[in-house]
Amino acid sequence: MSSFFVSLVIGLLFAIVAIVLVLGAYFTARALFGPTHEGDRTHEAAIGIATRIAALHGLILALVYAQELDDYKDVRGGVTEEAIAISDVFNDMRRYGGTEVAAVQQGVAQYVATVVGEEWAALGRGEGLSTKAWLQWNAVYERLLDLSPTTDRQRFLADRMRARITAVAKLRQTREATATGRFSGLFWGPAIIGLILLAMPLYVYRPSRTHLALFALFGAYSGVILFFIYGFANPFANPGKLEPTPFLRLLEGDVGKILPLPN
């Protein structure tokens, strides 16, 4: 099942659930309070309350949506930056030369393969970073620390590689924080309750075909917004899964050629 189809199904479910909540709240309120009478001020009061609830509810959705989208973009940029840092270590080690070239490059290649093949799926499940990938990163780091440069060229490259591999660790921790630090009831509770409370004052309108269609349209749009917030919440899982494209590009190039051929 493709990621697009999975995302489409989840999005439709969000829209349907939101429509059910809106119409359910509307009919429940109408059953409790009954139809309003012309001449009283119930209609004005209900619409005034609905307007205020809508303002607060829209503000909550907008703030959370903006935050999740910003985090998503940060992760995407961080993955690219991490891949660049890994590529720098791989290529600078070749420029450095010496007996450690093969060991460092193989360690880097194995690390990238582990991130793509194992760690990405673990992050999608909210399990955090791979211990195996950490060990592979640490092995490369230890080898870089043990380098004994003898020329200005080697000293520059050694310092640069140590700085780049340290940056990889920081970017890894950022990825983990995004995958495991998701919100739960702190957002979904107010979002769902706000949607229900926003729909209840609409009971002052007759359940005509036009009114019900407009209420359903409002519920569907609210569901779409909630779907995108949900999708951006974890960039490593559907429906908003971010593919490890920068790492895959490394494996398609010289980094992947270092790996042993599969049996």
What does this structure look like?
By secondary structure, the chain is mainly alpha-helical. The protein has one domain. Helix content is about 80%, strand content about 0%. It contains nine helices and no strands. It has helices at about 5-35, 40-95, 100-125, 130-145, 150-180, 185-200, 210-235, 245-250, 255-260. The chain is elongated and about 90 Å long. The mean pLDDT is about 90.
- Tell the overall outline: elongated
Give Rg in angstroms.
27 Å
How much helicity do the residues have? over 70%
Q: How would you sum up the major sheet?
A: none
| Count of strand segments | 0
Terminal Cα span? 28 Å
Q: How many domains would you count in the coordinates?
A: 1
> How many distinct helices?
9
H/E element order: HHHHHHHHH
Mean pLDDT: 89
- Helix and strand content put the structural class at mainly alpha
Classify the beta-strand content into a percent band: under 5%
Low-confidence stretches: none
Features:
263 residues, mainly alpha, 9 helices
Secondary-structure topology with pairs:
Elements: H1 3-33, H2 42-96, H3 101-124, H4 131-145, H5 152-180, H6 185-199, H7 209-233, H8 245-252, H9 254-258
Helix pairs in contact: 1-6, 1-7, 2-3, 2-5, 2-6, 2-7, 2-8, 3-4, 3-8, 4-5
Pfam family, one: Bestrophin-like
Keywords: Membrane, Transmembrane, Transmembrane helix
InterPro entries: DUF4239 (IPR025333)
